[in-house]
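Q: Structure tokens for this one, please.
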Amino acid sequence: MENKRTSRIIGTGLHVPEKVLTNQYFNDFFKEDVGSWLEGVVGQKERHVLGDNESVVDIAVPAAIMAIEEGKIKPEDIDIIIVSSDTHEYISPPTSFVVQNKLGAKNAAVFDLNASCASFVTALVTADKWLKDEESFKYVLVIGEYGMTKYLNWNDKYTATLFADGAGAFLLKAENDEEEGVIDSVFIADGSYYDYIGVFGGGTRFPLREETIQQGLHQLRIMKRYPPDINSRNWPILIENLLQKVGKEVTDIDMIFFTQINLGTIKEVMTNLNIPIEKTHWIMDKYGYTGSACIPMAVHDARLNNKLKKGDFVVMIASGAGFAMGAIALKW
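A: Here is the predicted structure, written as tokens:
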């Protein structure tokens, strides 16, 4: 019988900048109590932000090195590097080019992937498909990085207090007859929300000119408010569709990881699906909201806290503005 080729996660990594902003910092800055809401509803206590002379590559590379070292390979063994994010080093060239050079991964093909904050789960499925289909590839490095604080208007308390910077990485290895790895996935998208929130300046629609800056389009802007239940409504549907696709029940889930945007929403979904709260893990209390990096960061942190073990049935579900959502099932 022909061996079934699978992909297995053999290393994870996490890195954040040294600079920390606490809720008290924002209480003092805005001269009002924003910290009670941030901690009580969103679940945030502090967040890490890039310094003036730091960029996303400065956090992506250390996270990648951590995953590579756990996987016990050399950078030149990597076949593909995927950098997943909507906050990149440059408009062009891709961030993955810079990361490849910094790592010395001279044999790797590279590309960036942008599905907003759903970028990492999208990239993880892409990596899995590539390893399963291309017999000449053995290792794929997937990095989720986020540097949204570089685009914030620090006088806007709704965005300045929420967003943070960080990076997480997975190293995947192609295996034969291995039980671990990505099982399946489901995705949905609704592009009618494209103009709700984003950094709209700097592209071809609004090039970075004086008038673009005067309009504040070079900064993260909330143009329209999303429906407040957009995640709490769609996440359970995605989870149920994914479980049906892989022939599992909600009770089979050992761990589930969500986009770390709002702790209240995570708890609501867990309650509605009757999943014990111990079966999820959150990091927004110490890392804030790190967008496309938050799921690999949460997974790595859960491992540090001994909340993942070999053979666990794991679900990861992510949301990205625009919007895109994706859910992945895998066996750890």
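A few notes: The first strand starts at residue 5 and ends at 15. The mean pLDDT is 96.
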